[in-house]
What does this fold into?
Amino acid sequence: MRRTLLRLAAGLGAASLVRLVAADTAGTPFRRPAAPSDAAAGPPAALRTKPLSYRLSPMTANTPHYRPAAPPVRTRPFEKLPDIGHAMVLTFDDGPDPLYTPHILDTLRKHDVRAMFFLCGEMANDNQDLVRRISEDGHTVGNHSWTHPLVTKLSRAGITDELGRTSEVIEKITGAPPLWYRAPYGAWNRNSFEIGAAMGMEPMAWTVDTLDWTVPGTDSIVHRVREGAAPGVVVLSHDAGGNRSQSVAALGRYLPELLDEGYRLTVPQRR
Ligand SMILES: [Zn+2]
It folds into this structure.
């Protein structure tokens, strides 16, 4: 119970005080962001009596009642990260996939680069060793729902279930709940912002879509990243959901090129 209260307080505090800073990618071990200082004061009075929890019973059971998160809840996802200097963020969605994710991880490790992985809960559950490796390599594990539905078609209970189960399996495997989530298809709505905030997560979209899911050819993926490269840009790619060999090959080309151009590749830290 106490953990849940603290987590909620941290989540709500982060929602109002979120500051994005670039993580040091030069071999710095992964650090959990510190809880905001106001967490020590405890959650708002309204939450003390009836804390929210994403700890769900099986899907068929009654879903806990969610009230709106304390304001301010974001009404748009982050699409760029303006405060990270001459850096960019690489993100990989829909995994982990045993065929492609290990290659992505190998390339990132070779260049000592951290990235964000927005995992689907059912993929995470089926590939727990890979989730562990993503986390242990210092990458940021985000929530991409359990089954990749169109969130805007779901009830609040449905969104709660999709996000909650995924956060739960990620916490079970990595020891920490995700602090970021991304709506499948980039389809956000107010319910998802509120429910995500109540679970302590910030919404992350992207700036540059590689369109790698259309299997456009490795050259095309590399070109889109290079064309879109700029400070604060968030790049969307996929490490699962189909044949992603082009995504893997493209990373091996554009990553060293970006580094040669002086970009740092980083992950946002919340504090
Ligand atoms: Zn997706």
